[in-house]
Specification:
Helix content: 25-40%
Distance between the termini: 16 Å
Order of helices and strands: EEEHEHEHHEHEEH
Largest sheet: 6 strands, parallel
Number of helices: 6
Number of strands: 8
């Protein structure tokens, strides 16, 4: 029996990939970038523990393919949802609903999904609007750390990727018990 009820949506930039290391080509496509310290271990560990991972990220499909393949993280994601192909950007519900649909879930599953991201106005606000548990990763200083209003208030805040491991185990335990 699969006791991993929690589903994990992850942002890319400054959540897994360090945006300050991005190298772009003349078309603006990211051709290489490094992971945030610990982010690769976090993704692999969650996968190895049996969690379903979905990338929900704003940007071009090719950019994500490039950096996730380069960092050997591509195969850990069950689905990858990009704003380029969805024709919407977070906090649009279309981004989150596309991931829900791709995983064969329904909106009744939102209570067992977490969205981890670095952007209060996109990741947190978008997740909160759909009843998805928001996790703000405050690793970067490039984006605000103070919610503009209650719609941007994260349910949880972590400082760096490896902190997600314990939080995920705690949230999954609570789900399994309920």
């Amino acid at each position: 029996m699969d006791n991993k009820k929690l589903i994990i949506f992850l942002d890319s930039g400054d959540t897994i990939i360090d945006e300050s290391t991005e190298v772009r080509d003349e078309e603006g496509i990211v051709i290489s970038a490094s992971v945030i310290p610990g982010a690769d271990v976090m993704v692999r560990t969650l996968f190895e523990r049996g969690y379903t991972l979905a990338l929900v990220a704003d940007g071009d499909a090719q950019s994500f393919k490039n950096v996730f393949k380069q960092n050997d993280l591509y195969e850990y994601f069950t689905t990858m949802i990009y704003s380029e192909t969805i024709k919407a950007s977070k906090p649009s519900p279309r981004m989150f609903k596309a991931a829900i649909g791709a995983l064969d879930l329904s909106e009744s599953d939102c209570s067992r999904i977490i969205m981890v991201g670095n952007n209060l106005s996109r990741d947190v606000k978008g997740a909160n609007a759909l009843g998805i548990t928001s996790v703000f990763q405050s690793w970067t200083t490039r984006y605000p750390h103070t919610p503009a209003d209650e719609t941007e208030q994260p349910a949880y805040t972590i400082n760096e990727p490896l902190e997600l491991l314990n939080l995920v185990e705690q949230l999954n335990r609570e789900l399994v018990l309920n």
